[in-house]
C-alpha cells in the first residue's frame, strides 16, 4: 500500500508540476479547456522546420537494413532527438522576442515544463509498450528480480524515470535562457556571446542525453532488468 500510495503521489506530482508558471503566459480558450498558446505556436514552428528539412533532404528515401527487434524504435528515438534538438536551438537562434503577444513572450518549447513532462511520459509509454509487446505479462516479472525484496524500489524506479527526464531537460534549458537574458540586460555587448555559444552546445548535449536515456529504457524493458 505504501508503494502504491507513493506511486500515485509521484503521478500527482507530475500533474501538479504541469501547472507551474514562471512569468506571464498567453492562453487560448478552446471550449472548456485553457491551452498554453505560447508552447503550441513555437512547437508548430519547430515541427514545420523539421518537416521542411525532411522534405528537402530526403529526396530519394531508401530502406536501410536494421535489427528487426530494435530497428523499429529508431524512428521514435530519432524523432524525439530531432524535436528536442531543434526546440532547444530555436530558443537561442530564432528571434522570438520580435513577435509581440498580449501576455508573456515566445521561447523554446522545451523551456516549458508541460512540453518536457509530455516527452517524458511519451517515453514511459514507449518502454512499457516495448516490454509488454515482447514479453507479454511476463514483463512484470522484472519487478521481483533479482529478489522480491526489491519490489518496492523497482516499482518506484519506473515512476521516477519520467520525473528525472522532464526536470533535467526543463531545468537546463530554462537556466540557459535565464542566464543569457540576465547577461544581456547587464552587459549587452560582448559577454553574452560566449555564453550563447555554450548554450547551443549544452542544448545539443541535452537532446542527446534525453534520446540516449529513452533508448536505454526501451532496450532495458525488452532485455530485462539489469
> Total helix count?
7
Mean pLDDT: 77
Low-confidence stretches: none
Oligomer: single chain
Strand order of the largest sheet: 1-2
Helix content: 55-70%
What does this protein structure show overall?
The two termini are 26 Å apart. Helix content is 67%, strand content 4%. 21% of the residues are buried. The model has no long low-confidence stretch (mean pLDDT 77). The chain is globular, with a radius of gyration of 20 Å. It is mostly helical.
Topology (elements, then pairings):
Elements: H1 2-17, E1 27-30, E2 33-36, H2 37-57, H3 68-71, H4 74-93, H5 113-135, H6 151-186, H7 192-223
Antiparallel strand pairs: 1-2
Helix pairs in contact: 1-6, 2-4, 4-7, 5-6, 5-7, 6-7
Give a short synopsis of this structure:
By secondary structure, the protein is mainly alpha-helical.
What would the keywords be for this entry?
about 230 residues; mainly alpha; two-stranded antiparallel sheet; 7 helices; about 65% helix; about 5% strand; globular
Amino acid at each position: 500500500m505504501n508503494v502504491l500510495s507513493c506511486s500515485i503521489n509521484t503521478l500527482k506530482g507530475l500533474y501538479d508540476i504541469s501547472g507551474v508558471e514562471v512569468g506571464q503566459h498567453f492562453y487560448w480558450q478552446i471550449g472548456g479547456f485553457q491551452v498554453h498558446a505560447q508552447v503550441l505556436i513555437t512547437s508548430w514552428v519547430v515541427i514545420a522546420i523539421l518537416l521542411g528539412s525532411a522534405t528537402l533532404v530526403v529526396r530519394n528515401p531508401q530502406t536501410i537494413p536494421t535489427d528487426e527487434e530494435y530497428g523499429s524504435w529508431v524512428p521514435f528515438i530519432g524523432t524525439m532527438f530531432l524535436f528536442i534538438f531543434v526546440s532547444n536551438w530555436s530558443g537561442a537562434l530564432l528571434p522570438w522576442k520580435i513577435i509581440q503577444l498580449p501576455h508573456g513572450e515566445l521561447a523554446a518549447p522545451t523551456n516549458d515544463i508541460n512540453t518536457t513532462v509530455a516527452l517524458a511520459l511519451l517515453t514511459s509509454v514507449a518502454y512499457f509498450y516495448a516490454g509488454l509487446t515482447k514479453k507479454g505479462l511476463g514483463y512484470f516479472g522484472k519487478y521481483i528480480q533479482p529478489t522480491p525484496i526489491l519490489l518496492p524500489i523497482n516499482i518506484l524506479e519506473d515512476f521516477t524515470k519520467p520525473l528525472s527526464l522532464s526536470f533535467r531537460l526543463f531545468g537546463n534549458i530554462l537556466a540557459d535562457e535565464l542566464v543569457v537574458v540576465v547577461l544581456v540586460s547587464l552587459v549587452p555587448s560582448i559577454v553574452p556571446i560566449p555564453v550563447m555559444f555554450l548554450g547551443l552546445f549544452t542544448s545539443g548535449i541535452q537532446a542527446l542525453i534525453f534520446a540516449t536515456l529513452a533508448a536505454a529504457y526501451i532496450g532495458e524493458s525488452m532485455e530485462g532488468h539489469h
